[in-house]
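Could someone model adenosine-5'-triphosphate with this protein?
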Amino acid sequence: MSAPKTVLGIDHVVKRFGAATAVAGISLDIRENEFFALLGPSGCGKTTLLRMLAGFEMPTGGRILLDGVDIAPVPPNRRPVNLMFQSYALFPHMSVRANIAYGLEMERLKKPEIAARVDAILETTHLTALADRRPEQLSGGQRQRVALARALVKRPRVLLLDEPLGALDKKLREAMQMELKRLQHEVGITFVMVTHDQEEALVMADRMAVLKDGRLLQCDTPHAIYEHPADRFVADFIGVMNFAEGRVVDGGVEAAGGVLIRAGQPAGLAPGAAAVAAVRPERLHLFREGAENSVTGRVEAVAYHGLDLQLHVRTPLAARPFLVRLTADDADRRPVDVGDEIRLGFRAADTRLFAA
Ligand code: ATP
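Reply:
Sure, complex below.
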């Protein structure tokens, strides 16, 4: 198999606003046809990076390459890169069809070609039946699809999306996550999405970059980042993680009360160094043979979530109670109630170690 082709090369890009550094030297390769997410807490620089890709901001340093060519001299409207705004910015007095056709009319394409392309994209975005309505006659999700259709009809090389689902309520948001993914797959255009919502990035992205303070902490598939976060911040930011502080010893960490927590992959930390062991809620089980690690704790809260049971378990390992997700099977084997003392087991292979 040939190596995936890079569409956007982000090469040591820096952006300063006066004394403030919004992007502090980021390098990333975004590939052909992938759904790429830029993820990080507020102020991490993700929007600034997206705006530089669109051409609305110029990098202070570094280069942005599109298909290997530096696009610094290319103004936003000449870049084969489209930015879809969170506010959608639809023309209120125009029909859905006219909104979508507008960009092609500006390009002075011939009428039959415009009609054919608009019809095709209306079909792809499931908007054909709504083509003659105005934006005010649409729901939030439908408006969002119009904004997408308007961006996609121009067949950009890359579509940039700034918190595309931010304005939608939870249920619609979840439906649109799948919808956007389907669309991206169908049109075969590279999508770069900015989000602060880690769940959204996990669900939608083929690969994602986690940023903090203008720096890149990790870039990989959602699965790789979830299972093997690069550091404590990423481990905490992506999904839920239980932490136990301690000191590095042979084979793991000595945590509070002298408990040895074994970890599968010692992180190259010096013996005696301050470290933290980390384990996901779904990797904690009611103790059974084969688990190298165990701890006894008291159940403080139980919440039923349909597929699983979530427990808060107070252990000597950490100030915060551990969050435990038991499968329905596990919970059937041993009913658990608030106040119960239970023994939790977890495997060394499921335990990560980070510098504290
Ligand atoms: P959010 O999720 O809150 O939008 P973000 O990760 O997208 O955050 P950016 O908008 O890229 O963050 O901002 C990164 C940093 O750069 C912030 O500290 C912000 O205050 C600063 N910044 C962004 N734009 C400007 C500007 N035009 N002038 C000065 N500082 C700016």
